[in-house]
Amino acid sequence: MDEELRVRPADLDRLLEWMRRRGRPQATAELVRLWLERLRDEAGRGR
Amino acid sequence: MSSGTVAATSGPSFTGTAGQSALAAQAFDLMRRQGMLYAADAPITVPLDRLVQGLTRHYPKLSAEKLRAQVVTALDANPAVFTRQETGETVAYVTTKSGGGAANVLDQTRYMFRQRLNGEARDVTEQESHELTEGWIAQAQARTSDAFTIFQEPAAEAAVAGRWSGPADIAAFVAPAHPVPAADAMVFEPDLNVPWVPTEPLPPVEAVRAEEQLPPSGVPDAPPAPEMVAETLPMPTDVAVLDEPIQAAEPAPVVAPVPVPTAPVRPVAPPAPPAPPRPVRFTLPTADGVTTVDLAGDLDAILAEHDAGLTAMLGKALGEDFRFASFGGDWYPEDHVERFSKGDFRRVKDYLIETQEALSDRAFLSDVLNRRDTDPDYERLRFSLNYRLLREKKDFEFVGIPGDRLWIVAGASPVSAPKRKPSELGLDFRYLEDATAQALEPPVPAGTTTWDHALTYYEYESGLLPYSPTARALLPPPMLEDQRAALLRIEVPSLFINFPVELRYPTGNRGGYIVGFDAFFGEYLVPGATFTLEATDQANVLILRFERTAAQEDSLLQYDERRSRFVYRPTTFYAAVSPDWVLREERFARLDSLKRLDESERKKGEAIVSKAFELVGAEGEGRYMASLTDLLPVVNLERPFSPGALRAILETSHHSGFESDPETAGAYFYDPTKK
């Protein structure tokens, strides 16, 4: 059974930290891409 | 006097007599302190007089002349450490912190920051810099390890690795004489689009020679790098995340002046080829049901398919988290948003009042806050300014679009106010928000960039246009959730004029409209005139084109304020008109001396349509018959009606007096007895 895609608190923490490091505002589309990339990486690492 | 060798603590050895060696060691110590912050092999030059002066306290019983002679003798006895330099009458000695004379001094320019990183460095453009930074950050994020490896000089790496025993090791870790090319120094290519390819983790590596980490494409004749350097190279344990092996084909030309004995190393097998991508599946609820998203696939394709849903999901989560500040689809940590003083806001407001026009955030930053767009902090400040201005609702109002963030003083639009109140106008245009009426409108083709329009009397009189479905296709949507209006500019090439208009967005059941055309309509057009609005590259600029004609004379309907009646007057005009919409006396003779409906009647759509039937309809058998084409310009005297809005009343209204003619398309009956 596949997990439902949702935004977890940890995802927001990471996005927040990433934005702090970037030092400039980010559009939602950029954050969506980054969020999905992280999810993908995490899922891959978990195996 | 016996000769001997004295080695300074963690320093070079000195020759000569015991006294000379001791004196040389003290001189070396003095010179090394002089160049405390120098590089290991940077020349430290100290005049002989200063050396003598510094050594006097160790030999208080000797006169300066004698000490000078002994110092010269001692230093000259150690030519490997000290190099004598004579410039005119000044004698000086040169050494290095690592204990070498001038002969051991290498090219000093390599200590420049630029040389230490990349000797072939060149200036990068702003775009390249941006892409490079993006790449680094993306790679740092992509790496599975929490550790963030920074390329270090060997000496620094040795210190970090705990292999640092003292200053004597400096020479062993000096940077290579030949700079490492930038491409080799960077471990990962800054490519955001590299798909993730899951694979098994690499076996642990303890001590690996540099050449063993390289792919087979490495230069075979290259000398093996010392094991010490190999240990400290960043270990690309995440190398499998890339499609291709890391391009470290050319071994780093590391040259260690002092060879370090190498420990036996265990060879490791070359990395396994990347495994095929395995699915990373999630379910995603959509309007059409639950769908499955495989993140191992092409991310661009996923985003293209589910962009709206994913953006809404993440946007909602970000909006509910107080740590994120938002302005128009951009996000930033709230605690990093710049704060501005009351004085800053006052100066911004004064600037707006002074110029009497809408100004952009960029204008405020450059003209009021003295920030240039080359400032590295510029985008953060720009976001912060917009974010803060939005909270000063009493003083400022946002009337911009994503590409042009314009602000005005609250309640002081540069566009002239229409005669009617905004709330009344919104109610007049409520049919634009009525689903029944909109369902009867002709469809707007996708990708519409032009809007052909015939001016109604209502629009002419109020100086506005409806925010119709076609207008929506042309004009930018509100950037902010509660944005009331956006300021647009209309350019009329045939007249070489442009003027501002204000797009008032719909609110609730009140329709939107574009106001500010009153002067233009009054001067150049008449009711029934046709024109075209064209979208441009700038979303808030429209081009208005209309056909200018030779002088035309006709008796057209006008409202006489003094008599409070509609009257026909001979009018000369110079614009093309639509015969369906122009209110000529010969076509609508019964409109002459017509009074306006009172406000209570005007609010009832059916009452306006009934009146229109009586004015333009053909009477017979106790009822009136009129076509949609005849009714439309007349009902638009009192209130705006689109064809769909009029049809909604005629066809779907509960008013039983209206009936469509089954024999003639577009014709309707009105029976006053069925009111």
Tell me about this structure.
The complex is a heterodimer of chains A (47) and B (675). The radius of gyration of chain A is 12 Å and the shape is elongated. Chain A is mainly alpha-helical and 47 residues long. Chain A has helices spanning 9-22, 28-45, and strands at residues 3-4, 26-27. Chain B has a seven-stranded mixed sheet. In chain B, strand 11 (396-398) and strand 12 form a beta hairpin. The A-B interface holds A 2-7, 11-12, 15-16, 18-29, 31-41, 43-45, 47 and B 137, 141-142, 144, 196, 198, 241, 278, 280-285, 292-293, 295-296, 299, 302-303, 307, 310-311, 313-315, 317-318, 321, 323-324, 327, 329-333, 336, 376-377, 379-380, 383.
Sheet/helix structural class of chain B: alpha+beta
Name the pair of protein chains with the most residues at their interface, and give those residue counts: A-B, 37 and 44 residues
Radius of gyration of chain A: 12 Å
Helical content class of chain A: 55-70%
The number of helical runs of chain B is 22
Brief synopsis:
Helices cover 68% and strands 9% of the residues of chain A. Chain A has 47 residues and is mainly alpha-helical.
Blueprint of the fold:
The complex is a heterodimer of chains A (47) and B (675).
Chain A: E1 3-4, H1 9-22, E2 26-27, H2 28-45
Chain B: E1 6-7, E2 13-14, H1 18-34, E3 44-47, H2 48-55, H3 64-76, E4 83-87, E5 90-95, H4 113-117, H5 126-142, H6 154-160, H7 182-185, H8 210-213, H9 227-232, E6 281-286, E7 289-294, H10 299-320, E8 324-327, E9 330-333, H11 342-355, E10 359-360, H12 361-368, H13 378-391, E11 396-398, E12 406-409, H14 422-428, H15 435-439, E13 450-454, H16 457-462, E14 464-466, H17 469-474, E15 485-492, E16 497-504, E17 513-515, H18 518-524, E18 530-535, E19 541-545, E20 548-560, E21 565-575, E22 594-595, H19 599-602, H20 605-616, E23 618-620, E24 623-627, H21 628-635, H22 643-652, E25 658-660, E26 667-670
Parallel strand pairs in B: 15-19
Antiparallel strand pairs in B: 1-2, 3-5, 4-5, 6-7, 8-9, 10-12, 11-12, 13-18, 14-17, 15-16, 16-17, 18-19, 20-21, 21-22, 23-24, 24-26, 25-26
